[in-house]
Amino acid sequence: STDYFIGTLADRWDAGIIMQVLVIGALIALITRMGGMRAIADLVVKIAKGPRSAQITMWISSWVIFFDDYANALIIGPIMRPLCDKYRISREKLAYIVDSTAAPVAGIMLISTWIGTELVNINEGLAIAGITGVSAYGIFIDTIPYRFYNILALFFVFATAFLLRDFGPMLKAEMRARTTGETINPGSEVMDTEKVVDEEKEEIREDHGILKASKKVTPPNIWNAIIPVAVLIISAVILFYTNGAACIMDGGGFVTPEEFAQLSFFEQVREAYSASDASIVLFQAGLLACIVALIMGFVERIFTLKDGIETWAHGMKSMLFVCIVLILAWSIGSVIGDLGTAHFLVDNLSDALPQFIVPALIFIIAAVVSFATGTAYGTMAILLPLCIPLAAAIVGITGMEISNAIPEYTYILMCSSAVLTGAIFGDHSSPISDTSILSSMGAGCSLIDHVMTQIVYALTVGVVVIAGYILVGLGLNVWITLLIMAAILVLVLLFAGKKVPTWNGKEAAE
User: Fold this and answer.
1) Which phi and psi angles does 398 have, rounded to 5°?
2) Which residues, in sequence order, are CB contacts of 344 under 8 Å at separation 6+?
3) CA distance 4 to 308
4) Dihedral Cα 261, 267, 270, 275, nearest 10 deg
5) What is the dihedral of CA 342, 345, 348, 349, to 10 degrees?
6) Nearest in space to 101 (alpha carbons), one of 156, 144, 139
7) Cα–Cα distance measured from residue 14 to residue 333, given in angstroms and rounded to the nearest whole number
8) Cα separation of 237 and 67, whole Å?
9) Is residue 42 part of a domain?
10) Mean pLDDT within 423-451
11) pLDDT digits over 65-91, tens only?
12) Rounded CA gap, 376 and 115, in Å?
C-alpha cells in the first residue's frame, strides 16, 4: 500500500535520516574536491604496510565514531576506500568491517544514540513485570558481558584481519581483489559516492600498486579533511547534549527537569544523549561541516562559490538512490511489523520450554524479527516489553522487589541481552537494514554483494552465540563462555578458512 510509503516520508525520524544521508554525501564530495580524501589516502597508506595492517587500521578507525552507527558507516567507509585499492582488499570486506563495527559498537556504549531506546524499552519491560529494586541503566550495564553477538562480531572481524583467513563468498571476493586488482565486483550495481563531481572530480586509481591522480586533482591537504570531519564529530557531540537537554527541559526525556538538574555532569550527558534525536542532530552537524568545508574551499581558492555549491549538489545527488532504497526498506519493515510477527513467535515458541533454552530462543526470535523488519530499534521496542515479563514469570519474580545479587537477576540479564544483541544480529544480516544499506554505500560496494558476503560470517557468529546462551543458561560462567566462543571462532577460521595472499602494493606473496 502507498500508505506505508507515504507514512515513511512523513515520519520525523525517517525524514531526518534522509536529510542526514544527503548532507553527508555533500560533505564527502566537498572533502574529495578539496584534496582531503587523497591526503587521508596518502596517510593511511603510510601507516599500513599490507592487507593485515590495513584491515586492522580500518577496524581501529571504526571505533572512533563510537556514538552512532549511521555516522560510522557514512564516514569511515569513504575514507578507507583508497586503502582497499592500494592493498587489493575487496570492497565487500570493507563493507563488512564497517557494518560490524557500527551497531555492535554503538549498542554497548554508555554514551551513544542507542542507549536511550535501550533504556526506555528495558524500563517498560520491568514495569510490565512489576519488578522493582533494580534500574534500567543498571541492567543495561550488567547485560554488556552477555551481549554475545556484539562482542563476537567485533572479535571475528579482528580475527579475520589478523589471521588473513576467509571462507565462503568473502574468500571469493578477497581472492578476486588480490589476484586481479578488482576490488569492486565487476558488473555489480554500486551505490557509490566517488563520482560526485564531473570534470573536477578526483580520480584516484591504482597502477602497479601506486596511487595516481589526474592532472585536475587538487593537491592533497590533510587539513581539508581533518577540519570538516572534526567539525562534524565535535558539533555532533555537543548537539547530542544540547538537543537532549532541551528535550528533557520540555518534559520529553526519561527524567524530569528537576531530576536532571540534580545529576552529576556525566549523568546529565548520559540522560541528554538518551533523549536526543539522533537523526536531526547528525543532519545539523553534517550541515555545519559542509558550510565549513565550503568556506575553506572558497578561501583557499580551490573553487568559486558557484563551483562549491555545484559540488555540494552533486554530492547530494549521488545519495538519491540510497535514499530511495532506505524508504522502500522502511516501508517493508512497517508492513511486516504490522503483521504481528514478534507476538506470534513469542506466543507460539516459548511455551513449556526448559528454562535454560529460553535465552537462546529469545535470541533467535529477536534475530528473525530484526531480519524481517530491518530494524534493531523496532525489534527491541517490540520484544523487550514481552521478554522481560516472560523471564520474570519463568523464574518466579513477577511483581517482586529484587536485587542484582540474586540468581534470578542473572536470568533477567540473559533474556534482556538476548533481545538486545539478537536484534543487532538480525539487523546485521538483513538486506533491508538501513545500516547494511549505508555500510555498502559508504564502502562503495553493491548492497547484494555486501549482504551475500557478510551473512555467512554473521550466521557463523550467530550459531556460536546460540550455543553460548545455552551454556550460560545451564549455569556456565559468562567470561568462560566468551572465551570458549572466541576459541571456536578462531578454530573455524583455521580449519574452514583459507589463507588469502598478501599484497604489498607491488606483487602478491604468500
Assistant:
1) -60, 130
2) none
3) 37
4) -30
5) -130
6) 156
7) 12
8) 8
9) no
10) 89
11) 676 677 678 778 888 888 888 889 999
12) 12
What digits encode the pLDDT tens for the residues 16-54? 777 877 887 788 788 878 888 677 766 766 777 888 988
Q: What are the tens digits of pLDDT across the range 389-425? A: 888 888 888 888 887 788 888 999 999 999 999 999 9
pTM, two decimal places: 0.71
**Is residue 23 one of the residues assigned to a domain?**
no
Q: How many CB atoms lie within 10 A of CB 141?
A: 14
Distance, CA of 24 to chain centre: 16
Residue type, 122: I
In this structure, is residue 256 part of a structural domain?
no
Give the domain range for residue 175: 50-64+88-184+333-509
What amino acid is encoded at 399 in this protein? Answer: G
Number of domains in the chain: 1
- Mention every residue, 6+ apart, whose C-beta is less than 8 A from residue 240: 67, 113, 272, 273, 276, 278, 281
| 74 domain-assigned | no
Q: Which amino acid is at 165?
A: R
With the CA atoms of 22, 455, 57 and 222 taken in that order, what torsion angle do they form, in degrees rounded to the nearest 10? -20
Please say whether the beta carbons of 298 and 305 come within 8 A.
yes
